[in-house]
């Protein structure tokens, strides 16, 4: 039998290790410690998604660890996720179970003037807020309750985290962030 003191200490240590300074809302799943390898060739029906301008030129959409629930980031081509849009949902096509890109929903009090940055993360359940679509090769996200000048505008901020940009692209960019658009790429392999 485990002593109550040991059990309490273990639980507190576990809970403490889950706290994070990440911009991802608290209802997201805690990151896992191992990854699911990403195939190095593009799977049928999937796309790579990447930025095409500096400072994130050819950084690819993914999570770290790869293909597990967690913060959406742009990072190395060697661990790039593979995605497609299915019924308005952006889905990681190589994770098991599938991962869906979520967007932070502003509180009702903030809905008229939402934050300039809305966090994104991958989760094992469908995203209930907004719709993803392709506009040419650009990834877009929209929702009726938030008016955006450019539905293809994204921000990459601290630790390469990806955010929806609710403001003007390239104007009054938040400190520590870079304006980006992200695009699908369908060559056989991801490249630098």
Kindly report the average pLDDT value: 83
H/E topology pattern = HEEEEEEEEEEEEEE
Q: How many β strands by DSSP? A: 14
How is the main sheet built? 8 strands, antiparallel
Distance between the termini: 54 Å
Number of helices: 1
The helix/strand class is mainly beta
Query: Based on the structure, what is the oligomeric state of the protein chains?
Result: single chain
- Low-confidence blocks of residues: 1-28
Task: Give a written overview of the molecule.
With about 190 residues, the protein is mainly beta. Helix content is about 10%, strand content about 30%. It is built from 1 helix and 14 strands, in the order H-E-E-E-E-E-E-E-E-E-E-E-E-E-E. The protein has one helix spanning about 5-20, and strands spanning about 50, 60, 70, 75, 85, 90, 100-105, 115-125, 130-135, 140, 155, 160-165, 180, 180-185. The strands form 4 sheets. Strands 3, 5, 6, 7, 8, 11, 12 and 13 form an 8-stranded antiparallel β-sheet that branches. The chain has a two-stranded antiparallel sheet with strand order 1-14. Strand 6 (about 90) and strand 7 form a beta hairpin. The longest helix is centred in the N-terminal third of the chain and has 15 residues, at about 5-20. The relative contact order is 0.19.
